[in-house]
Amino acid sequence: MQTTNEATNSSLSFLDNVYGFLREPDGTYSAKNISETDVLKMASFIAAQKINNRVCIDSPKKATELIQFKMGKPEHEVFACLFLDTKHNVIAYETLFYGTVDGASVYPRQVVKRALANNAAACIIAHNHPSGDPEPSQADKTLTKRLKEALALIDVRILDHMVVGHTTYSFAENNLL
């Protein structure tokens, strides 16, 4: 049976053949004659591997990087959750709701259902502002309070609510949780 690192290394080694990347022993990659599309596919694959291997979210920076990458730059508002275990290892990243250019309907009941389905102990919630301005609205603050209360009933903590725009706004770093 393979260990997690062996499984990751073997699944990453096929990237040599598929995308033209060469993984060096120190974990870095080199490539020749690859397209921008190949780079994006490679980045997406590596991010998926990190989630599948339960990477630990041990800093706001790591959470921000993962959420910014997974969320991308959609033209409409999306709401997602990063579900974590008791040691803050990633269980799953799920986009739960899709909206319009200036809002998305988020239902606490559905967030609670997904947290239970993932057996999560904690989560980081996130949504984007297609306008690029990450400043949270009053509706964002109210939603965070409602979700915090709903998830607390099932002993799931919200560690942060991130609003992704040109930059990322963290509720936790701004003492709004």
UniProtKB/TrEMBL annotation:
Residues 56-177 form the MPN domain. InterPro entries: MPN, RadC_JAB, UPF0758, UPF0758_CS. Keywords: Hydrolase, Metal-binding, Metalloprotease, Protease, Zinc. This is DNA repair protein RadC. CDD domains: MPN_DUF2466. The keyword Zinc applies. PANTHER family: DNA REPAIR PROTEIN RADC, UPF0758 PROTEIN YEES-RELATED. Pfam families: RadC. The keyword Protease applies. It comes from Denitrificimonas halotolerans.
